[in-house]
Amino acid sequence: MKVTLLLSGDELIEGRIQDANGAYLARHLHERGHDVDRIEIVGDDLDDLVARLREASARVDAVVLSGGLGSTGDDLARDALARAFDRRLLLDEQAARWIASFWERLGREAPVQPYPEALLPSGTRALPNPVGLAPGILLEEGGFRVIALPGVPSELRGMVEGGVLDVFGRGSVARVERFVHVMGLAESEAAVKLGALLERGRQPLLGITCGQGRLTLRVQAEADDPREAHRLAEDGVRAIRERLGAHVFADGEASLAKVVLDELRRRGATLAVAESLTGGEIGHLITEVPGASQVFLADLVCYANEAKEALLGVPAEVLRTHGAVSLETAVAMARGARERAGADFAVSTTGIAGPTGGALEKPVGLVWTAVSWAGGERTLRRVHAGSRHDVKVKAAHQGLDLLRRTLMESVSEDGDA
After folding, report:
1. Last residue of a domain, one of 251, 270, 285
2. pLDDT 10s digits, 356-380
């Protein structure tokens, strides 16, 4: 089935917010065996939205419309559907009950009655919204269908996860996607190692995206038989792991922080963090993982040299001789965090986030990370490109990956080097 995505809202056209729904919807439709022919953004213009719906009805099998289901003057989805397909707006009793229940759960009185969100084009069906207020809408016109969903990403995703796209069924082609996550390689380096696996037109098809110092490889397999598609996808993941080795930190949805925490938990080990330039970013990534408190003891953010001395015990002589951004300081920070928190492992970051403060020997983007454990220390030096924010986030992942590699490669089960 061929599907067009219409994303509605002036805020998207004007660039005030970034679309968070198009790629999400396209991926879920693609996984179900449907083809998204285009993703269109349309402003809050009723005539334009009506024209886009009518044009799509003559070109594709279905439309997913995101946005415009609220109760303000710029929420035009209901009116556009009614006008485009010659329907009247009528109060939907099921939608009204859902909306009343929403306000009751909040312990508040609805500001407007009857509920504007419960006015639906005649002959359509209200779709439950488990997260928010406005129900979705299913409209069918001959063999053409429209699903209208809220534009709020959390609400749209809640409805998709609840199965709202199941009305489209599944396409004739079985598609399976797997994702492999990689650290420590540039895209060009990974491409050399992967070689022919990246050729277009092969099965499974591989693609690479970059972000925050990491690579994500998408393995996409297609076959008439779902079992064959799964086999092809698994073969692709296996081939990537064979060629990239320890650079692969996960396949699936696991984050780098979760991989690290799972390994620490398996060992019964604890972790402390000492951060300078990253300013708590490592701690943030760790505490995003449920159950982090089982192994994560402390995050000491020590920006000033005086704090590094007082809270982490970094010797003043080390700071004077080598500077705050150095191998020696990174090691002293990690060692100090581990000892003072009573942790089994500690990781530290120090560097120059920029955009100023760099020099020939210590350029902007320079990051030192260190891991300390009872058996010794391990360090890593990298220079990262990008904005101040980019450098900080990449440095945080650099620290977590150094810890991951230490756990994998350098530390035995009893904690010795």
Report:
1. 251
2. 888 888 999 999 999 999 999 999 9
